[in-house]
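RECORD TYPE: inverse folding
INPUT: structure tokens
STRUCTURE:
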């Protein structure tokens, strides 16, 4: 809200609760509270005591950040003051807080993290160096004024007045014959902020609520909550659970379970995986794409990109892993938006298209770089989805030309849907025959882990009893009785579990499994012997304890190795 203003010579602008910065600050606290509620809901009663540390830490971080933001939202103090002589603001970067109109050449609007600022350019002044590479980040020749604490209407009005003042100052200087003013100064007939607001108003008129985007986010979140309730962990969803809920694998798709191409789009390997994808869908373009292309075309872009991405994955990642996640569909949406912005770049607000394009390019680059530099990311699905988003973005009409959109949308939707079905069918039909039954592999891995864990547990307890015996705290008869009545049955059960494991001949764990079974069987045969009298000691000792200890130590090392290898034998995207 404004406002004190002398009749004709002064204008003051104040911070507003409707400003982007105020909204950003409020969302920060809402996010914090939502995070706390989520932590409490998903935690078990015995874990409540451990929540105080993350809660206090996040509160301190948000409070510090909020105090920095609050400085740009002062109460009862003007943010910017304009008068006939110049412009003054405490928010100017650097020590100089006031500039006269006569020393300003131009003013350009830009955005950083979606928050607007005005960058001025000064006339050449002795002693003021135009240094954009300064280590402080402040260029004295190009003062910067953040305006995110003003409401959108005030931002537009402020820029309009600045344009008028600079236009008046420029014409005055030109009339005096001063040639130092650049001919590349602002086009004062336009206001980028007003153009952007008008464009956003137009998009919101097309679709006041982007309900498809919110529906997709809601479905993804609800599916993850259901999986968490069924046993998934926050940091990692087990591969077998992803598979049972509809994860994508080449072997199962080729057996006729084509529905996995769709269900895999709504499954995620962890809470972080879900959060990144849903934030990407919202921030990178879900709402904007839905408003530009319309509800049905947007749905086709999202689902089509995900389906074809998962289809291409059958040639690569899904051959040997459970593939799941919405990242392919999100990247398809981002690319479709980039295509739409590029096609209509001449008629879109420059500040909008430039900011969106740079954000999309950065997001796509990061997604591909992360995929190529980290094991377990299904880049084939990403690339297939991006190609689909590109083609559908070129095919489907945008609502920027409503009459053309109404005449073309049905026809192009049919073409796009048909092409998506044909492409998905072709990818599945021509995919290389899967050699790995991941469902069987997961079953074998579960048996292997179960048997190895049981065996390792028995060996650790046996270690403790042998140490107790050697310290003289357990008699030979007690140790022998415990071995025969407790450990023998546990070792035999482990052998039975390990005997049910079926590993491929190429599996590097096969040799370790065979050694583990042989060593366990040998240990069992030693323990089944009757106790013997150790020569020269006159004491009875349970079986051949020295030999058994050597076998046990070797077996323990093999078991530890096979447990480590099994944890990393399968991956998900």
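DESIGNED SEQUENCE:
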């Amino acid at each position: 809200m404004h406002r004190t203003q002398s009749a004709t010579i002064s204008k003051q602008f104040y911070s507003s609760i409707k400003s982007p910065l105020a909204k950003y600050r409020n969302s920060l606290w809402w996010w914090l509270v939502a995070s706390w509620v989520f932590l409490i809901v998903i935690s078990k009663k015995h874990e409540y005591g451990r929540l105080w540390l993350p809660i206090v830490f996040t509160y301190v971080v948000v409070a510090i950040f909020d105090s920095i933001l609050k400085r740009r939202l002062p109460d009862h103090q003007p943010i910017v003051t304009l008068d006939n002589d110049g412009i003054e603001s405490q928010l100017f970067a650097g020590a100089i807080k006031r500039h006269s109109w006569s020393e300003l050449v131009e003013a350009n609007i830009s955005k950083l993290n979606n928050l607007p600022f005005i960058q001025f350019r000064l006339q050449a002044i002795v002693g003021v160096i135009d240094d954009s590479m300064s280590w402080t980040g402040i260029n004295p020749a190009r003062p910067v004024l953040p305006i995110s604490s003003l409401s959108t209407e005030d931002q537009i009005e402020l820029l309009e007045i600045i344009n008028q003042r600079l236009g008046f100052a420029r014409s005055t200087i030109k009339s005096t014959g001063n040639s130092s003013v650049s001919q590349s100064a602002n086009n004062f007939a336009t206001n980028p902020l007003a153009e952007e607001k008008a464009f956003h108003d137009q998009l919101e008129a097309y679709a006041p609520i982007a309900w498809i985007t919110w529906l997709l986010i809601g479905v993804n979140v609800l599916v993850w909550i259901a999986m968490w309730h069924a046993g998934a962990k926050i940091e990692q969803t087990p591969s077998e659970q992803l598979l049972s809920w509809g994860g994508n694998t080449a072997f199962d798709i080729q057996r006729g379970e084509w529905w996995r191409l769709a269900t895999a789009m709504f499954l995620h390997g962890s809470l972080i995986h879900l959060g990144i994808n849903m934030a990407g869908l919202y921030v990178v373009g879900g709402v904007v794409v839905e408003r530009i292309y319309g509800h049905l075309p947007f749905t086709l872009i999202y689902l089509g990109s995900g389906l074809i991405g998962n289809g291409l994955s059958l040639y690569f990642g899904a051959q040997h892993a459970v593939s799941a996640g919405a990242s392919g569909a999100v990247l398809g949406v981002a690319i479709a938006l980039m295509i739409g912005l590029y096609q209509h770049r001449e008629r879109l607000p420059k500040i909008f298209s430039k900011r969106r394009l740079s954000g999309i390019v950065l997001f796509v680059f990061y997604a591909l770089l992360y995929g190529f530099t980290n094991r377990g990311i299904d880049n084939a699905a990403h690339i297939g989805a991006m190609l689909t988003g590109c083609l559908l973005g070129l095919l489907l009409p945008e609502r920027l030309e409503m009459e053309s959109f109404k005449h073309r949308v049905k026809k192009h939707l049919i073409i796009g849907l048909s092409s998506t079905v044909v492409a998905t069918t072709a990818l599945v039909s021509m995919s290389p025959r899967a050699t790995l039954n991941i469902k069987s592999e997961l079953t074998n891995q579960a048996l292997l882990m179960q048997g190895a864990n049981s065996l390792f547990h028995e060996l650790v307890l046996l270690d403790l009893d042998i140490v107790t015996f050697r310290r003289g705290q357990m008699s030979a008869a007690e140790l022998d009785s415990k071995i025969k009545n407790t450990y023998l049955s546990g070792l035999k059960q482990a052998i039975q579990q390990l005997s049910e494991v079926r590993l491929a001949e190429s599996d590097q764990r096969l040799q370790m499994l065979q050694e583990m079974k042989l060593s366990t069987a040998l240990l069992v045969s030693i323990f089944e012997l009757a106790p013997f009298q150790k020569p020269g000691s006159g004491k009875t000792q349970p079986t051949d304890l020295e030999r058994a200890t050597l076998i046990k130590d070797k077996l323990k090392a093999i078991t530890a190795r096979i447990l480590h290898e099994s944890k990393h034998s399968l991956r998900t995207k």
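NOTES: The CA atoms of residues 358 and 490 lie 62 Å apart.
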